[in-house]
Amino acid sequence: MRTIVKALVLPIAAFALASAGAVSTNVSKESKTDTVLISGYIHNPQPNSCQEVQVDCTTNPGPTCMYNNGTSNFQVYRKVSESAPCNLQLFRNQ
């Protein structure tokens, strides 16, 4: 009788503990590699030029979005339309 109880109860207990562990595990699905790059514009080489660059920035206020081309840092801007100047500030994603 005892053997039957062990053979029946132990697998059920193991399954219950495994299920509880799986449900209680909290794994974040968001990672830094999941970010989407957007088109931004820097004033390079002239102050009135608009060179397109890909950046991880947003329009939500926060720290200024900067782009480094390997030698210099540039503040990143956005445009309302293709013919508009690039003078709308972008902010760093946090």
UniProtKB/TrEMBL annotation:
Endpoints of the signal sequence: 1-18
Classification via InterPro entries: DUF6520
Domain of life: Bacteria
Keywords per UniProt: Signal
Name this polypeptide is given: Uncharacterized protein
Organism of origin: Flavobacterium johnsoniae (Cytophaga johnsonae)
